[in-house]
Specification:
Layout: H1 5-16, H2 23-41, H3 48-69, H4 71-81, E1 90-91, E2 103-104, H5 113-129
Antiparallel strand pairs: 1-2
Helix pairs in contact: 2-3, 3-4, 3-5
């Protein structure tokens, strides 16, 4: 049985793609940019997760420095970590719905680049594979 979420994506496409301020469009374009960069940097790895782990190893020091020195970025990062409901500390994996597959928001330590990347990656996976509704 289908849940008709595909219809909501078509409605989204018709209504939202001309909006430059659409969070989904912004997120998608940023993800596509990061994915392209990762593919260029780590050609020998086929797994997105492995590429992200290497990216973390190679660039976490830059991320940490930015978080420490750029107040505007830090404020945005803290705002991002507050987008979850107060009772929720994680991003569900909508593909498996398994507790062990949850990624945690970086609100305890926003300088943890891998944690941040894991949350972003899980959000991407939820959009592309997990039945995420475009209007939620």
């Amino acid at each position: 049985m289908y849940n008709n979420s595909y219809i909501r994506w078509i409605i989204f496409l018709e209504k939202e793609t001309d909006r430059r301020d659409s969070p989904f469009i912004k997120f998608s374009v940023l993800w596509f940019s990061l994915a392209s960069f990762l593919s260029d940097m780590y050609k020998d790895d086929f797994s997105e997760q492995k590429k992200i782990e290497k990216f973390n190893k190679d660039f976490s020091h830059i991320y940490t420095k930015i978080v420490e020195e750029d107040k505007k970025f830090k404020k945005k990062l803290l705002s991002f970590s507050m987008t979850k409901k107060p009772t929720r500390k994680f991003v569900d994996n909508l593909q498996t719905n398994q507790i062990e597959d949850r990624d945690y928001f970086p609100d305890e330590d926003i300088t943890d680049f891998l944690k941040f990347l894991s949350v972003i990656y899980q959000i991407k996976c939820n959009f592309f594979h997990g039945g995420k509704d475009p209007f939620n």
